[in-house]
Design goal:
Strand content: 15-25%
Shape: globular
CATH superfamily of the largest domain: FAD/NAD(P)-binding domain
Structural class: alpha/beta
Strand order of the largest sheet: 14-15-18-13-22-19-21
CATH architecture of the largest domain: 3-Layer(bba) Sandwich
Oligomer: single chain
Number of strands: 24
Number of domains: 3
Number of helices: 12
Helix content: 25-40%
Amino acid sequence: MIRLRQIDIKIEDISHEKIMEQCASKLKIDKSQIENYKIVKKSIDARDKSRIYACYEIDVNVRNENKILKKNKSKDIFKTPKEEYVFPITEPKKLKHRPVIVGSGPAGLFTAYMLAKYGYKPLILERGESVENRVKTVERFWKEGILDPESNVQFGEGGSGTFSDGKLNTSVKDKKFRNKKVLEIFVEAGAPEEILYLNKPHIGTDLLRMVIKNLRNKIIEMGGEIRYHACLTNLTIENSCLKSIEINHKETMDVEILVLAIGHSARDTFKMLEQNNIPMEPKPFAVGVRVQHTQEMINLAQYGAFQNKLPPASYKLTFHTSCGRGVYSFCMCPGGYVVNSSSEKGHLAINGMSNFKRDTQNANSAIVVTVKPEDFKNELFGGLAFQQELEKKAYIAGNGKIPVQLLGDFMKNQKSKEWENVAPIFKGEYELANLQEILPDFMVKALKEAFPYFDKKIKGFASKDAILAAVETRTSSPVRILRGEKGESKIKGLYPAGEGAGYAGGIMSAAMDGLKTAENISLLFLGTE
């Protein structure tokens, strides 16, 4: 096949015939010579609102391929490269005890998937419920306020990403095609094939739940096992070597290989690891608020007159404040919901969520401010304590409900009285409050400086009727569990993985780290490079 880059087609002209025509023109051949084609990448160029293009990278099958390649010397025309993920060891060494994986978020599931595929028969320990039961528990929490600390938006099968937008893009450099492999596994589990080529793929929380269930069933079919309501509560270590684990404070299990894919909110587990002298360090993260605008306004700002010809628009914003803090949009959810994502009683945290169709009237995104370990004198759990303090304040300010405020009133430091042009869209109850009473001064100043700047990028972004909610604290883990180049902690047999361990930031990067962890286990256990 021949790879073609820079196939740009106006949005209003997209069709099979137009793609064939453009490919033939690029190759300087008649389109009858093209036997078939495959879209490799597709993105939208909306820099010029008067002419918006779909930009393609396409593989084509043609007759006389070598002759055509010799005739075309463009850097955008070349033989399709081999882009294949290869698992390093396909014949597993027999272990005394099967590998145990703590957590069934993306890192845990994809570690388990690869280990199961190659005969390791892993066991997943999940402190929460299966995705089917978890959805019911979370829906009850949103409707009735009954929180289950072990099964909620943060804990349970699928991890925190299960109640999100289901974004499947990442900025991680990927020379081994782990990204491609993860997307292929998603498609095998029922995700739409378009995620293989879209520049910013997503499947939404509704499709993601189905995919998670199918992944679990595939792992079980390949010899793996998953246990729910099974929380890691202690470790036994001898001579810097892991010997056994404790589950639910009562059951002991001998373990040879333990993968810590615990997620960014397992605060009790972090403290247990510290008590067992597992090497960890504080790391940067970000905290802020979540803002809602009408999706129509965002579409108009991003796409102009073509807003009705394109899917709901997203955005990405960054700002560097005068005091040196970074402020940026995070987990932007077109056509989505702002959701109560609390996991501890007496504390309140929020997140954003969308379904596959992204069809609500509002767009929402976290607008967060960077927080560094130096802010807490580099104390190991300083960031964790900071998160908890803000979540407690948010809970009190909203009387147990999500505290919300109009942006105009936030700028004036006054409590809002009523909504204006943006109707609130939440999962979970909410209550009007003054968010400045929740956030620290440095964060308030950073946000008040950033919003006017963002308004220059997206007209109407700082409109007084935009709705703010607090508090967004679970952007990433405030702690990193240290590991070496080959993925192993200083404690032999212990493999930190994914977002909770501090090595990922989203569904895709966590899943890719799961593949990497499975690779490292196969290589290190055999003593090979």
